[in-house]
Design a protein that fits this description.
This is Helix-turn-helix domain-containing protein. Keywords: DNA-binding, Transcription, Transcription regulation. By secondary structure, the protein is an all-alpha fold. The chain is 53% helix and 0% strand. The N terminus is likely disordered.
């Protein structure tokens, strides 16, 4: 069963979009997150991007910080 944040928000797809826009691999982004105190592995990041794993507010905050985007950019409706 797929578990995700609300589909109308597509947070995982936005994470993937901004990650690729910044030229980062999942491994590189996961390493940045871990350096900043957010224990997300490369596998977990892949699950977030595909909607198989939901994210906490803390993780979303750290993702926005690592991707250098406004926090609200990940929550904006499509």
């Amino acid at each position: 069963m797929k578990r995700s944040t609300p589909l109308t928000r597509n947070i995982g797809a936005k994470v993937k979009y901004y990650r690729k826009l910044r030229g980062l691999s999942q491994k590189q982004l996961a390493a940045q997150l871990q350096t900043n105190g957010c224990d997300i592995t490369e596998t977990m990041l892949g699950h977030i991007e595909t909607g198989y794993r939901s994210t906490s507010i803390f993780e979303i905050d750290k993702l926005a910080e690592a991707l250098k985007v406004d926090y609200n950019a990940l929550f904006a409706q499509d």
